[in-house]
Amino acid sequence: MSRFFSDKLSALEPYTPGEQPRDMVYIKLNTNESPYPPSPSAIAVIESGEADLLNLYSDPTSRVLHQAIADYYGISSDRVIASNGSDEVLAFAFNAFASGKSLAFPDVTYGFYPVFANLFGIPYKTVALDDTFTIRVEDYADIDSTVVIANPNAQTGTYLPLYKIEELVAQNCDRVVIVDEAYIDFGGESAVPLTDRYDNLLVVQTFSKSRNLAGARVGFAVGSADLIADLNRVKYSFNPYNVNRLSMVAAAEAMKDRQYFTECTRKIIETREYTADALNKLDFTYPVSMSNFILARCDQISGKELYQKLKSKGVLVRHLSDERITDYIRITIGSKEQMEMFIQKITEILEELK
Ligand SMILES: *Cc1c(COP(=O)(O)O)cnc(C)c1O
User: Fold this and answer.
1) In a mutational test of the pocket of ligand 1, which residue from 30, 31, 87 has the highest number of ligand atoms less than 8 Å from its CB?
2) Shortest-distance Cα residue to atom 14 of ligand 1
3) Ligand 1 and 86: CB distance under 6 A
4) Local mean pLDDT, 10-residue blocks, the chain (354 residues)
5) Are the C-beta atoms of residues 127 and 83 closer than 8 Å to each other?
6) Total-model pTM
């Protein structure tokens, strides 16, 4: 830290992204990316001349992208805001709806929520997940804070059905409820339709996981036109050209290519079920996942040791130090071939322990 760094931020603990080592080629199952390339039409539109226009700013109103998202959900485009990754729209939302107030979120969830809260000086409280790592909606009933949850939940993959989300939103009608649906396309039902009826619900999604565009950095939020206008006030006070040209057209095409999206998400879901069964046979336990990862543990070996042994065998998974899940590893669902290799390596490691 230089002597110039803000005192106010001196205690800041930044988010730690999953590692991206370059020392060898790993089977990369640690950051919940898609194993599949972007939609061919997303690549084609970048190559069709958009790059020649990079001397010009991108459209600050993100018109083509907002329209593609609005068409997908059958809503008007003034209820959509696109962002530079969903992390950015989460930052806008925290500023718009929690600054000067407080936040509440689960004790085990996406690591960025507390990081943003600390960066923006927003006090927060955490609410414990139950023993099955599921959110108890009742626990948020009398909470006098802006609520943010991920559904399916980050790190655990556990899912709340839509009627539970509706209960959560209805019981907090005087506070904004942010539902981060980064993993919703792997078998869950989106709360976007509820935004027609609840003016306090903001749904956040990303192109990074189910739409194969993590490197393009595109996310978005859907809510009432008023909530979206609030987020635009923050966006235009921070970074009006937040979505770059190439990412904007690529994401719009990815949204339109429903067939490719459905095919990729179907494969991930199938491979997840294959992986869960195989882990079960190896005596692993895990909460039921509705996401593109599984949080699993095995009594014979600690999470940290398993992570290290897998890494030495060329497979990267995530080991998180949060106290409640430190015995676990988080395994991103890759291609079928990658997961077969992963299961083979795990089997070897368990054999070697004997
Ligand atoms: C991956 C993830 C994000 C971040 O997505 P980007 O769009 O890549 O910024 C947000 N929330 C959750 C819960 C995630 O897992």
Assistant:
1) 87
2) 182
3) yes
4) 92 88 90 98 96 97 98 98 98 98 97 96 98 97 95 98 98 97 98 98 98 98 98 98 98 98 98 98 98 97 97 96 95 98 98 93
5) no
6) 0.97
